């Protein structure tokens, strides 16, 4: 009854809690403000453990890259948004109102990225030396983030006083990059500038100066191969990826003996939690998607290309202009889909479009309806143009035999089920309905059965409602005694794309009265209410404000039962100031309603800061 993702998450959680024996128990925190000392470090350890487990017999760098991409995708969508909003705070906060609201993405996920930067600066051996010294000094003691930093500095003979700012400054740094090539001198200059842009007030209030940013870079030649890298003043080239120590507000690095105009591969492996600003052309991004040797940046190029196209289309959708998608974009996706040298797991990630939530966060004024229209247009265009390739990928990545949640088999299922999801976007989804119905009936694992049900729910939006209703009824009958599986049943319906005839909210309200729904069960509340508010932005942000009215009702209902869960739900509107004026007005009304009725300090802190 568990999916591939469930098995991976279980392994990660077990690893995380086991690793707390050393990083949390034997060496613990002096006070609550040092929480990231144990949680950020232990998240890093469980991420590395999961990456090692995923590598298996596969190409290690590619397998580890898949895990890295998954982790960064979560960081960008959730923690970067937290950094940009009213709940922004440093990795080591200075104060708190309600301790239950202290367990944040910043403390955990950004804290993990801060730990990872030590490894990027010193390498795996240097990082291990720092960890060994940390345990030697502090076993059996309650210590601080500074103690950890000092251990890393002393073990590696490096002054890390500037690095402390990663713990005390809030916000997501932005690094702008400018390059120039002197063909006659064979010199390539890279100028980096750091700042915070229009960050949240909390971010601006904590700024103390420039950060030490480990900035990994590669240079790629016209043939798609990495160029050897030699910085000015060095006697010889040293590898094809260099980590630049970027420590000033603005800093220039010069590479010498560069034989041709290169294309830079920036922030390889996401070497620090920053936003990179560089003026890549669409052709540049397509080239990196096809050739970059760094798997993370290969994925990143595709995401940048897709984000640019989708935001352009969203602007056209908002202006009621016709939508078109260039053939070069389709061709770039076709190359990835048919490239057998890439693992199925990597291709699934590379071919998945940025989420609607992430895209809306990139807009000056978030317009969820326009984003949804643009993203659905691109999904249908890719489904139509690559129909033959999706059908081939679906057929080629079956996993016959007994179910095994191995990384290799999980990757094959992921690509196969992505192909099925795209086919469900066709104007005539008959192929998807046929394949999904057969897959649902024959599935010997929850990954395939849930994916088939999801495809049928997507096809229902195009009018094929009967197969979806049949599968929903069957799914419930099969698993009504399995609470965690029924959570999936609720969540899939809450995230379903609605139609004018049947908005998703109407179904969600109906499901609130279902015998299996219990608001007092946190998992069940999350599966239905949270899924609608977080995983269905187009329906949640309905122009009439009905989604916000539902949100306020549920926050207040949960506040009377479980304030911690209510506070998590309350954060759904914390970025309300970044939306279009009409939506902002509706959100303000809902926030005021919750502020007037909330009883707990947990919820009041969230809505008052918003």
Automatic annotation (TrEMBL):
<dbReference type="GO" id="GO:0008237">
    <property type="term" value="F:metallopeptidase activity"/>
</dbReference>
<dbReference type="InterPro" id="IPR012779">
    <property type="entry name" value="Peptidase_M1_pepN"/>
</dbReference>
<dbReference type="InterPro" id="IPR027268">
    <property type="entry name" value="Peptidase_M4/M1_CTD_sf"/>
</dbReference>
<keyword id="KW-0378">Hydrolase</keyword>
<dbReference type="GO" id="GO:0006508">
    <property type="term" value="P:proteolysis"/>
</dbReference>
<dbReference type="InterPro" id="IPR014782">
    <property type="entry name" value="Peptidase_M1_dom"/>
</dbReference>
<dbReference type="InterPro" id="IPR038438">
    <property type="entry name" value="PepN_Ig-like_sf"/>
</dbReference>
<dbReference type="Pfam" id="PF11940">
    <property type="entry name" value="DUF3458"/>
</dbReference>
<protein>
    <recommendedName>
        <fullName>Aminopeptidase N</fullName>
        <ecNumber>3.4.11.2</ecNumber>
    </recommendedName>
</protein>
<dbReference type="Pfam" id="PF17432">
    <property type="entry name" value="DUF3458_C"/>
</dbReference>
<keyword id="KW-0645">Protease</keyword>
<feature type="domain" description="Peptidase M1 membrane alanine aminopeptidase">
    <location>
        <begin position="3"/>
        <end position="166"/>
    </location>
</feature>
<dbReference type="InterPro" id="IPR037144">
    <property type="entry name" value="Peptidase_M1_pepN_C_sf"/>
</dbReference>
<keyword id="KW-0031">Aminopeptidase</keyword>
<dbReference type="Pfam" id="PF01433">
    <property type="entry name" value="Peptidase_M1"/>
</dbReference>
<feature type="domain" description="Peptidase M1 alanyl aminopeptidase Ig-like fold">
    <location>
        <begin position="171"/>
        <end position="279"/>
    </location>
</feature>
<feature type="domain" description="Peptidase M1 alanyl aminopeptidase C-terminal">
    <location>
        <begin position="282"/>
        <end position="610"/>
    </location>
</feature>
<dbReference type="InterPro" id="IPR035414">
    <property type="entry name" value="Peptidase_M1_pepN_Ig-like"/>
</dbReference>
<dbReference type="InterPro" id="IPR024601">
    <property type="entry name" value="Peptidase_M1_pepN_C"/>
</dbReference>
<dbReference type="GO" id="GO:0016285">
    <property type="term" value="F:alanyl aminopeptidase activity"/>
</dbReference>
<dbReference type="GO" id="GO:0008270">
    <property type="term" value="F:zinc ion binding"/>
</dbReference>
